[in-house]
Design a protein that fits this description.
The chain is mainly α. The protein is built from seven helices and no strands. Helix 1 packs antiparallel against helix 4 and helix 4 packs antiparallel against helix 5. The longest helix has 36 residues.
Length: 149
């Protein structure tokens, strides 16, 4: 169950490192250039690292840190929906930028089901260890968000 989390975390961190190390190479894809473009891309790289803290915590111990796994799934879903919204709002004539956003859609789109799988595996394993009957992940997620305390 750590494998899906590790895959998403490694993709995200690889992107962050590329942005930090080779910002000048990626700036034109965001329709940016020069020192300002490189600084903005490096800033994205730093943000990617910050945003991946819950993924790393969940990877350390998915059972103990289920909340971090849920947070990572929510963050990944927000990213995917936000990128789709950006594409929908983008005017014609920005094909390089559109391609860049589509790459993020593909990666985040792959990450969402992987994190759902990890969450399902954690829940299934936890229930087996605790001797509880299996239940659907959807009901479990609803209980997690509606749980008091």
């Amino acid at each position: 169950m750590r494998l899906p989390i590790a895959a998403v975390l490694s993709w995200n961190l690889q992107c962050a490192l590329c942005f930090l190390i080779s910002a000048e190479r990626y700036a034109p894809a965001f329709e940016l250039e020069g020192v300002v473009g490189a600084a903005m891309v490096r800033s994205l790289g730093l943000l990617f690292i910050m945003w991946n803290v819950p993924y790393a915590v969940a990877l350390i111990h998915p059972w103990r840190h289920r909340t971090s796994l849920i947070e990572a799934l929510i963050m990944q879903t927000i990213g995917l929906l936000g990128e789709l919204w950006l594409l929908w709002r983008m005017p014609p004539g920005h094909e390089d930028l559109r391609s860049t956003v589509w790459r993020f859609v593909v990666f985040d789109g792959a990450g969402v089901p992987l994190l759902i799988l990890a969450l399902w595996l954690v829940r299934k394993t936890t229930r087996r260890v605790e001797g509880l009957p299996p239940s659907s992940t959807g009901r479990w997620l609803r209980r997690q968000f509606l749980r008091k305390g």
